[in-house]
């Protein structure tokens, strides 16, 4: 029985978030994951861009069988789709392929081709933010793999926070991890990694909006290069 299945149906999730955010700040990653799994049971899922399977590996050790939501935008690299398929085969998780309401061809017919080049915010909203929002409706909480060192907009995030836009709890277990910690964990545990990482893509999104990055450059500089954009909108 989880905390939310007790005789306290009027529990205020925002109160839970405030208390947990304070108590779990700086806590070990697995402790954060155990708290979330015990609190939300089957009403928590995990989202992944299939850049790597570090968070999937961590969460599945505590909660095998967890739903892993992957937003298939129709623009992904073949390597990303391959990583998704490998994750489904290797880890004890339930991969759910989330798709937009329109195919790429249908979007092109309605809004014109290459919307990602003309209006990347709208394209991200239609192909990432909106479909993920609908897929998350059946859950009370979700695990995210964001880290504070990735972008300036993520530096003030909390390990446990209230996702006001979706009316649910967001849990960020690896928020304080550095890239070095990520690399060490993946190497030590044989974690699946998207092969594009080895070809100069430290941050991987949709193929039309992702470029390789030179050694020493900001790892996120290959995302929407030259567009003044750093977030797809999912984590705003």
Automatic annotation (TrEMBL):
Comment on bound cofactor: Binds 1 [4Fe-4S] cluster per subunit.
Record-annotated Phosphoadenosine phosphosulphate reductase domain positions: 49-212
InterPro entries: PAPS/APS_Rdtase, PAPS_reduct_dom, Rossmann-like_a/b/a_fold
Superkingdom of the source species: Bacteria
Record key words, sorted: Cytoplasm, Iron, Iron-sulfur, Metal-binding, Oxidoreductase
Location(s), subcellular: Cytoplasm
Catalytic residues (UniProt): 232
Residues the entry annotates as binding [4Fe-4S] cluster: 123-124, 206, 209
Protein name (Swiss-Prot/TrEMBL): Adenosine 5'-phosphosulfate reductase
Organism: Actinomadura macrotermitis
Gene name linked to the record: cysH
